[in-house]
Amino acid sequence: MRKILFGLCLLLACPAVALRGAEPLRERVYLSTDRSVFVAGDAVWMSAYCVDMQTRRLSAFSKIAYVELQGAGGLACTAKIALDGGRGAACLQLPNTLPTGNYRLFAYTQLGAGEPGFDPLPGSHVLSVFNTFTTERAEGVTVSEGIPAGRERRGRPGPVRIEAKPGSGTARLTLSNTGGRTVFFDLAVRHRDLIPAPAGQDVFDFVQAEMPDFQGYGPETTGEYEGEILRARVSGTDAAGVKAMQDKYAFISSPGSGENVYSSAIQADGSVKFFTTNIYGDQEMFLEIEGVDRTNVCHLELESPFRDFRTGELPPLQLSGAYAPALELRSLAMQVERNFNTEALYEDLPFRYQQLFGEDDRRSYVLDDYTRFPVMEELFVEFIPELRVRRIGERREIQVRATDGLGNMSFPQGAALVMVDGIPVLDHGKILAYDPLLVKRIDIWSDTYFMGIRAFSGIVNFVTYKGTLPSMQFEDNVRIVDFQGCGFPQAYTGADAGKRYPDFRQTLYWHPLLALAPGETLTVDCKMPDYDGPFEAVVEGLTEDGEGVVVVEDLTD
To answer: Is 337 helix (H, G, I), strand (E, B) or coil?
Structure first.
């Protein structure tokens, strides 16, 4: 039996697949956040709506959105949001070194950003950030004697209704859809203090924004239909060395059970694209080129996917001495959450995840169940009949036994993909010299697998006790780089807040991925903090046919 592990049709690399007949798909992303005013070090909870601006409906095409926070000094920080059906969520952690000022937050897909003259301004938010640890200020910050006017968040009549019942320490919210269309939305319950929100846009401005005439896609535009397309380039050698790398295979992977390992062929210009199904979380990535002579010092460098857009001038931020009590409370709340165990405040949400190697097809050998041997090859001989070692020229190769459709077993001549803790080890001699006492178990997949255009006759993963490839030595051309993956979608429930430390939360509840069909209701219990209000509940989202929804409900007793 043959299995296609990860093979993308070449058409997916062409933006023309995004066309609906003669009408182009024009994606834009709207970001909704839990608040608009923060202190440096806060978490910004985000809900993404990827919309086809031709129809104003959610777009199911792109599977990842790129988030940029731009200040007066340029790009401040970034994030990635995995999309599924046009929806996604993540958390952006503000650095505690950000100077006080206004910042613009926006997101885009590579398909949308590939249009010439793309403007990320529609769908962007202006966030006010106050740094309570330093007097450093961004350009344009002024001081006011009074309380500056700000933008008041107002709801509009719509299909979602909020009924609030404040209680002793808990407020119960009942949300209902009284309209005739499904509504996709996020819900924030938050403290409303004296610091005004900066002027900016909401979802109504986004859906009503006029689109310029379509000028086609840029020459390098690639629709990310399955997930992020990682781009790398051969470095550390001259033009002749780059050309010599053509058609060699490159690998990118991260430690784990093999869920993040991808391969691709290097092009004539030294570039390579890895088609992923989205990689979650920040982690280390290993990049390696197969078949490189040890004297060749070339390696792969990963390119940034962020465009570093410039979005024009930001509105000025006005400081006021009247903000001091509110900022003191906000700073205290931020420090308590960052320095104490706050995992109990979050709820993990389901996300789109495609495991490359199925557990049902895996045969595992837990080595502690057998006699431990000091030599790796002895394990294969004594109790792992699916593996054998053969000499191919000057090298030794690990082979995996396969079974055909008639039940006949044989060892194919093709190479197997051999890994340690999910990282490919292309020189099987390193595995044979590895200390088996460091290995907890050996996972084996016996079928033929395709990764891109590369085929492997079986997969073997040596899982160590530590899971960190202890004592494994790699060639000099292997590069290990820090990688920013997609944020895990989470709801901020705050259910266990205040049990071990005072509860000064500013965002009391946040759920980024809610939906209500016509006539449906949803009940949410929100734990109130250890200080008095006022508080408010805010719903923001889109109906299934692309109309904006904003509902604001006062929770003050």
So the answer is: helix
Nearest to 126 by CA among 105, 153, 148, 95: 105
| Closest C-alpha among 512, 424, 508 to residue 474 | 424
Residues in the chain: 557
Q: Where are the alpha helices (DSSP H) in 447-509?
A: none
Residue written as tokens 């033929």? 448
Side-chain-side CA neighbours of 504 within 13 Å: the count stands at: 19
First to last CA, the chain: 66
Mean pLDDT by runs of 10 across the 557 residues of the chain is 42 47 85 95 96 94 97 94 96 95 96 91 92 91 76 74 85 94 96 87 90 86 91 90 88 87 92 93 93 77 93 86 92 87 77 72 92 93 93 89 74 86 93 95 90 86 94 88 95 81 90 97 92 91 95 84
Distance (Å, whole) CA 14 – CA 7: 15
Hey, what are 400's tokens?
Answer: 């995996």
Nearest to 466 by CA among 489, 447, 496, 440: 440
- Which residue in 432, 451, 56 sits closest to 259, CA to CA? 451
Fold of 359-477: Ferric Hydroxamate Uptake Protein; Chain A, domain 1 (2.170.130)
Q: Using the 8-state DSSP alphabet, how is residue 84 labeled? A: B
The domain segmentation of the chain, as residue ranges, is 2-216+307-351+488-554, 359-477
